[in-house]
Amino acid sequence: MPPAVQEAYGADDLGTKPIFAGGFINFGHWQAIDISSGLSHEDRVRSQQDMYRHILNALPPTEQRRALEVGSGTGAGTALALQEYGFAQITGMDIHPRQIERAQQSNSRLLAERPEHLGFVQGAAESMPFDDEEFDFLYSVEAAQHFSDLTAFGRETARVLRPGGHAVIASFFTTDDTPGHAERLAALLDCYANGLDLAHPVPHVVDALAQAGLTHTRATSIGPAVWQGWDRWINHVSGPDAWPRNFLRVHEEGILDYYVITATRPAD
């Protein structure tokens, strides 16, 4: 585990910061929220819930299917997926043992009531602790910017999906592999300077999935629904000089965007 990931999701716990709310750790999907007026805690929680809904709505019908969330964090999104989308079973996987502990604690009632439907497992995106063809769906919300080996992640995604299974990955990536993007991000954002986030070009993410044998690979920008709302929330809780504010700046410079990437394992 990279040291920056160990620190950010260990005792420091990003999920306790004011910029995140409700147990979620994502920038939010703000399309259904009026960001022109004052934002509330409830708006912030809704934005993060809606990010999950936007991702899960990209999947075919989910009722009575098995799903894996890669990078499930505190499990708030995993619980939402189970309760709102009718999965037969969902496994949340995270590389950090403290996040697994938090997910089990915060979802203890749901785990007790529906133990056969929900579980949390420690594991890495590049080496998943699951059998071949175990899941109908794999989804990941704002975790892939941490993955150290995209080729291994693509291979593991293809391996654990059943024939005809679908993957949806949402996160922020550089728009292309132009030299200098990584250095610019590191100069403006601490999370790139310290190695927490990696400057993966979005074509490399798509290619990693395609090279693993997945088809219909496609990246779609959802930046318009993310960056302005995120920036307004950051300003609301942290002030205009807070370091996360520069995400909007690097987006406006054409360096970074937020994408939803979809892929399918071919049916036999």
UniProtKB/TrEMBL annotation:
The keyword Glycoprotein does not apply. Keywords: Methyltransferase, Transferase. This is Class I SAM-dependent methyltransferase. Residues 68-169 form the Methyltransferase type domain. It comes from Streptomyces luteoverticillatus. InterPro entries: Erg6_SMT_methyltransf, Methyltransf_11, SAM-dependent_MTases_sf. Signal peptide: none annotated. One of its GO terms (molecular function) is S-adenosylmethionine-dependent methyltransferase activity.
